[in-house]
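TA notes, week 10

Several of you asked for a full example with nothing omitted. So below is the full record: structure tokens for the whole chain, then the designed sequence directly under it. When grading your own attempts, check the secondary structure regions first.
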């Protein structure tokens, strides 16, 4: 239990940090790709779709799973708090509240990662729709 107590925050925020780094890297990569892509060089709609949607699943996965990582950190933090309370002789309301407040920061961290990831995913998906529509317009004009 002491190991969990000492490394819980580092573990949860390390995972959330890694998730946000991967998400941010893929968002930047997609934005650069979308700015430079020439839809005319894709003769097939399926090839275009594969090229445009590359890495979007990872961004969506970060957006949907970051709150769960934060929630897991909160649940484990509450578990540690209750364990510490059970080990003590006195029940102190301020100690309980402090432990719960500190445990909730993991959920907040998960939301801080998930909200921008969701916004980025939705924005990139809209850009995919616009580029696909441009491809369709070129095909109809040809």
């Amino acid at each position: 239990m002491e190991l969990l107590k000492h490394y819980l925050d580092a573990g949860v925020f390390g995972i959330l940090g890694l998730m946000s780094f991967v998400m941010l890297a893929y968002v930047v990569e997609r934005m650069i790709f979308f700015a430079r892509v020439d839809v005319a060089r894709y003769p097939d709609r399926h090839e275009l779709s594969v090229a445009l949607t590359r890495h979007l699943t990872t961004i969506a996965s970060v957006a949907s799973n970051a709150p769960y990582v934060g929630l897991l950190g909160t649940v484990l933090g509450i578990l540690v708090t209750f364990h510490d309370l059970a080990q003590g002789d006195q029940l102190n309301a301020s100690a309980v509240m402090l432990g719960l407040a500190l445990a909730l920061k993991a959920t907040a961290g998960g939301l801080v990662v998930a909200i921008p990831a969701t916004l980025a995913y939705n924005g990139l998906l809209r850009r995919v729709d616009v580029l696909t529509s441009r491809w369709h317009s070129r095909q109809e004009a040809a």
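The chain has a mean pLDDT of 93. Use that as a sanity check on your answer.
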